[in-house]
Amino acid sequence: MKRILFIDRDGTLVEEPHDEQVDSLEKIRFTKGVMRNLGFLRQHTDFLFVMVTNQDGLGTPAFPEDTFWPAQNFIMQTLEGEGINFDDVLIDPHFPEDNAPTRKPQTGMVRKYMERPEEYDIAGSYVIGDRDTDAQFASNIGCKALILGRDGLTWDKIAELLFAGERTGSVRRTTKETDIDVRLSLDGTGRCDIETGLGFFDHMLEQIGKHGGIDLYIRCKGDLNVDEHHTIEDTALALGECLYQALGSKRGIERYGYCLPMDDSMCHVCLDFGGRPWLVWQADFRREHVGDMPTEMFFHFFKSLSDAARMNLFVRAEGQNEHHKIEGIFKALARALKMAVRRDIYHYDLPSTKGTL
After folding, report:
1. pLDDT tens-digit series, residues 190-246
2. C-alpha torsion 174→193→321→235, nearest 10
3. Which of 3, 5, 4, 16 is nearest to 130 (CA)?
4. How many other β-carbons are positioned within 10 Å of the β-carbon of residue 165?
5. Where in the sequence numbering do the catalytic residues fall?
6. CB-neighbour burial class of residue 97 (10 A; exposed 0-12, middle 13-18, buried 19+)
7. In this structure, what DSSP letter does residue 17 have?
8. Does the CA dihedral 104-105-106-107 come out positive or negative?
9. pTM of the predicted structure, to 2 decimals
């Protein structure tokens, strides 16, 4: 079945002017990155391209067609010159107050695609736009939405997600000692929702999400009545397995990743997603606990994480304040992760001379 990109025009392909009418050539400014990335998607994916645009009052004295079509034709010809051809162009001329069934976010314009499920994979299709109404349009159609500007979404990121896919991981791990649910998205914005029963541990895990740009959901119910060991170890194992899942083929990633100062401390965390787990740990702590977390468990956390994620990990920390050293290590890990998982679809090969990772 064919998948479709339903692509808005104003604000998505071209910048939207203040009066919200692209009715002259002087007003046309293509959005940043659209040519390179839409051209890449046209060449390297099998999506159909369908332009879907509201043009309020087109054909009325307020917006005569003889001012619309020269601009529209110039836009289309310029895109075609960059290898970007549309399979269909759908334009609705109604005002919002007309309540027309063809005006986005209503679905009348694309009903012909929705009514042929044997031919079109609507659930696997996307709306690309710049407004909340475009997101609502996608919901009404039954497909996904990619909204420019939302959570920092750019054309670069849209092309990456559509070509190489979203990178997510999910692990549910239940034993007699812990019940853990971990989910993550490597291509997130740092959203965190974490509860392990250990406040300081939660705070450290949040550093990974926030400073790594990773959306992170963690729930752990462990046998804290015994001690903290199983909660910390099993969370590390589940988190590492999620990272391994999300990385997938590892094609296009940087692979390697950071040193980071925090007040009196200097923390080095270097990693390699080469598939061979190994931990070098050069961090000593004088206190037995920081918050509600035993300092001896930090080595154990990073060892379990390294094993489950199949990564080589080097950790070194210097300084006087134990809290700063530990937090600096987690922040440096986050930045190393962010660097190492960065993906380049324009150099989409495996970063290894062996041909495998």
Report:
1. 999 999 999 999 999 999 999 999 999 999 999 999 999 999 999 999 999 999 999
2. 10
3. 16
4. 11
5. 8, 10
6. exposed
7. P
8. positive
9. 0.89
